[in-house]
Design a protein that fits this description.
Elements: H1 58-64, H2 67-92, E1 97-98, H3 105-120, E2 129-130, H4 133-162, E3 168-170, E4 174-179, E5 182-191, E6 197-211, E7 217-224, E8 230-234, E9 237-243, H5 255-260, E10 264-273, E11 278-287, E12 291-293, E13 295-297, E14 301-303, E15 309-311, E16 319-321
Parallel strand pairs: 4-12
Antiparallel strand pairs: 1-2, 3-5, 4-5, 5-9, 6-7, 6-8, 6-10, 10-11, 13-16, 14-15
Length: 326
């Protein structure tokens, strides 16, 4: 890769690349956008899908939302259901609940609310009980709703805890650094979980704007070979290197070349989590403006008080620029 004084504009010219683009379908379609990135930095795809109804992604959101949002949703739903049934008990008459001394609206509402929470959770302390057919029917419906609700919550909790998920941190930048008398395109990642990842494999793919012989602008995809793309044990940090030699599809390309082509490098990591023996995966994406020329990563592995290797995860992306003569 070179720093060209007169970089070619790939949105206008056809840049010759030795290797051929992938001819198999990757899931992006044949009319992938040439303007915006295909994948966000966090690995989510930059695409909007039309919903058939408002419940299409309910399970997905409940499983993937943050724990704080999940907790407040459950807590809010519990409060809302109890308020609703408390209001119903007040509408039919507070005298239909034995053990409650009638008073003002707020007093009656509060007493009915606490009876509702006991019924919904099937606790039933016993000092308040429904009196009459209508009150007993409402209490029965509420207890049935409580059983369904807590069964649903239990299933969601199990799904959230058992969902296979890798916790891998990536460097914010991708570096172009000296590598074996040439240069290499590299990024670094680290395993942030205590569990080991077994048989971890990495694939990277270059998305690239090019014009064909007819002048039509399209998005082509090129696999980028890695020096090492698979390791047996991923317990510390791992620097992935794509050698920029004559076998690379972007050999002798400048930064401006990649910027003009709106180049995007997509990373797929997959491995087996030793905790549950399930395959986990994660994704990441770098754009051309995430590239840093002539730099190298700083060390992130030290020693703790016991002399054991210590991975400083928060420094996984730290780098330093090299002198121009290196």
């Amino acid at each position: 890769m070179r720093a060209s004084d007169q970089p070619s504009n790939l949105s206008i010219l056809i840049r010759k690349i030795k290797s051929k683009p992938l001819d198999r379908e990757l899931g992006f379609g044949r009319t992938a956008t040439t303007e915006s990135r295909l994948m966000n930095p966090d690995g989510s795809f930059n695409v909007q899908r039309q919903r058939l109804n408002i419940w299409d992604n309910t399970h997905y959101h409940l499983i993937t939302m943050s724990w704080w949002w999940f907790f407040w949703l459950i807590f809010g739903s519990f409060i809302l259901m109890n308020c609703l049934f408390s209001l119903i008990y007040n509408i039919i008459g507070i005298q239909h609940l034995n053990g409650i001394v009638a008073g003002g609206f707020l007093h009656n509402f509060a007493q009915a609310y606490f009876f509702s929470s006991q019924t919904l959770t099937t606790v039933g302390y016993g000092h308040v009980s429904p009196n009459g057919l209508l009150a007993n029917v409402i209490a029965s419906c509420e207890s049935f709703l409580g059983l369904l609700t807590f069964a649903l919550i239990s299933g969601l909790l199990y799904g959230r805890f058992s969902r296979p998920q890798a916790k891998i941190v990536f460097s914010e930048k991708m570096l172009v650094a000296p590598y074996k008398n040439e240069q290499g395109l590299m990024f670094r990642m680290g395993n942030a979980r205590r569990s080991e990842l077994i048989e971890t494999e990495v694939q990277i793919l270059l998305a690239f704007n090019q014009r064909d012989e007819n002048g039509l602008l399209g998005r082509n995809f090129y696999p980028l070979e890695l020096e090492i793309n698979k390791i047996n044990f991923f317990s510390l940090s791992w620097t992935l290197v794509h050698p920029l030699n004559d076998k690379s599809p972007i050999y002798n390309f400048s930064l401006q070349d990649l910027l003009d082509a709106r180049a995007e490098i997509m990373v797929l990591v997959k491995g087996t989590d030793e905790t549950n023996q399930q395959q986990v995966h994660t994704r990441h994406s770098y754009m051309a403006d995430d590239l840093v020329w002539n730099a190298r990563f700083r060390p992130v592995i030290g020693r703790n008080a016991k002399g054991m290797p210590h991975l400083i995860t928060r420094k996984i992306g730290e780098y330093e620029e090299l002198r121009k003569d290196i």
